[in-house]
Amino acid sequence: MIDPIQTAINLLVIVIAVGALLFVFYSRTNAVEKTGYGALIMLAVVSIMIPIFWIVETNNEAVAKAQQHTTSVQNGAMLYAQYCYQCHGTKGQGHTGPKINGNPAVSNLTDADLLRIISAGVYDTSNLATPLMPAWSDRYGGPLTDDDIQYLFDLIRSSDPAYLQKNGLSGPNGFNQIPNLIQSQNPTAYQTAVAQESTGQFGNPVDMTKQNKVTIDMGAPPAGATCTPACFAPLNVKVKVGTTITWVNKSTTPHTVTAIQGTDVSNIKIAKNIFDSGISNAITPNATYSYTVTAAAYNFNPKTHTVVYYCQIHPSMLAELTIVQ
User: Fold this and answer.
1) Which of 199, 218, 252 is the last residue in one of the domains?
2) Domain that holds residue 183
């Protein structure tokens, strides 16, 4: 791309140099004076060109920095469309994970802290074996290189205009690119994600209020699902107080069925007073765990009358009970 500022500066230098040479050539002086004037003019031209070259180089560095940032944000958007949208939403607006698009809490993190969180993840201080967010860096067992981590960092920072201005950067919010990227890469997964976001992170509840006994399976995840290595199915069940729910482990690994406090799955705290099958007594393949819904569960989250639960061994396995009386 031709830089108009640099072009104008180059033309100015040429005009000055040519004008100086013409003045020397046509001036009515002797050879000695012409030589002296010529030397002075050349010194003047060199003096002018030095700051001009400095300005040009500074401009080139700014252009290169802007281009590098734009490319990095684009690469970050592509990585996000592959790895991150299931938890953080198709536009970074939050889903099963926290909002990272324009979130003041994220924007206020230092660069070092944000890079550390992306690289090494976040762990529950009460149970260091339970990651609240996985580590993405290949240094800690994740799939991404240091360059990839930097791309995701630049994507997140692109949603903070104050950060861009402070660091002499500019450009659009990279999260706006992501829905089209997901749709082009995996249309089915995109439609599933949009449907889940429009109806809540667990979708519309399956109405089982007419049943006194309900069965929920723990089995292989369907296409496009983010829960691994298994999923609860149905993901959201509407039940009445007094209903007995039995979870059946149809997968090949042990799991737990554990209620959490509130609905914030980015900061999980166990609600043993509601239900918890226990990590020390995990539900092995083909085994079951039963729980009878109580009034305490109905009142646990009074605004929504829901209980979110998960597997302590596999925190991406999340589901919800919607409770009525």
Assistant:
1) 199
2) 72-199
Residues 153 and 122 reside in one and the same domain: yes
- Rounded to two decimals, the pTM is 0.53
SS (H, E, C) the chain: CCCHHHHHHHHHHHHHHHHHHHHHHHCCCCHHHHHHHHHHHHHHHHHHHHHHHHHHHHHHHHHHHHHHHHHHHHHHHHHHHHHCHHHHCCCCCCCCCCCCCCCHHHHCCCHHHHHHHHHHCEEECCEEEEEEECCCEHHHCCCECHHHHHHHHHHHHCCCHHHHHHCCCCCCCHHHHHHHHHHHHCHHHHHHHHHHHHHCCCCCCEECCCCCEEEEEEECCCCCCCCCCCEEECCEEEEECCCEEEEEECCCCCECCEEECCCCCCCCCECCCCCECCCCCCECCCCEEEEECCHHHHCCCCCCCEEEEECCCCCCCEEEEEEEC
Question: Do both 136 and 222 map to the same domain?
Answer: no
In terms of domains, do 115 and 224 share one? no
Give the number of domains in the chain.
Answer: 3
Cβ-based neighbour number of residue 190 at 10 Å: 21
Are 44 and 153 within one domain?
Answer: no
Q: Which one of 24, 54, 70 terminates a domain?
A: 70
Nearest of 222, 219, 75 to residue 154 by alpha carbon = 75
Query: What CATH number has the domain bearing residue 109?
Result: 1.10.760.10
pLDDT of residue 24: 59
- The domain that holds 252 is classified in CATH as 2.60.40.420
- From the first residue on, what is the mean pLDDT of each consecutive set of 10 residues in the chain (325 residues)? 59 66 60 66 69 70 82 95 87 81 91 94 66 84 94 96 92 94 84 67 87 95 75 94 97 95 81 95 96 96 92 90 95
